């Protein structure tokens, strides 16, 4: 399975913070925001990942993340020169996906929780149609909402419904079989000229091959696209890390745990940042986890 991080857009909801800086480079406690979606794909076992962003941001992300070899993965980059909708990622990334299945995650989404990595790996191992993730919200009229039957198969998808029939907000994480590339080519742009991911998901819904995994109470999801949610995500990560002594979305630790790199490589990466708490954490766990 291939992976795509869609890190484009103008970040206008975060103005003036994002007038001169990409949203994905903003801090969520002690890491750049882009670390969090990238960690999700790595936890899924995906090692070949395309990062899509704006012309001005791609060089910055490349400077931050490199080609991924230090993490035992492969990172490549592509430009989305203007916002054309989430599903545009599959047109841009068609060559990257090739004949494989694909997982797409939005560059401002943060997921964390017990058992989440296991669910990700199950989705990546046997994709069949479309798998979405739902998160229970108290204000479903603000989100795209998925209604499911008793087997978790999607019955309907509604965008910001006035009278919601469910409270499962569809998050920015999507697993698809390879047909998604052809579907994205067939859908018609919206009135705004964008390729809507909801249209892709509804095509799978028509085929009876769309399911939604409802994230349990032990899992957390943030869409870090507003000032309040960005702050709340940072505070959440701070509490988890300080109380539990672990790191959320620590890419080097994930690479070690997943067997992408060995303990020596993890230690060397920590040594490069040894003057920071982050670097010291890597040197401490390198052999403890080996």
TrEMBL record:
The keyword GTP-binding does not apply. It holds the Pfam family NTP_transferase. One of its GO terms (molecular function) is glucose-1-phosphate thymidylyltransferase activity. The gene is rfbA. Residues 2-236 form the Nucleotidyl transferase domain. Signal peptide: none annotated. It comes from Dactylosporangium siamense. This is Glucose-1-phosphate thymidylyltransferase. Its EC number is 2.7.7.24.
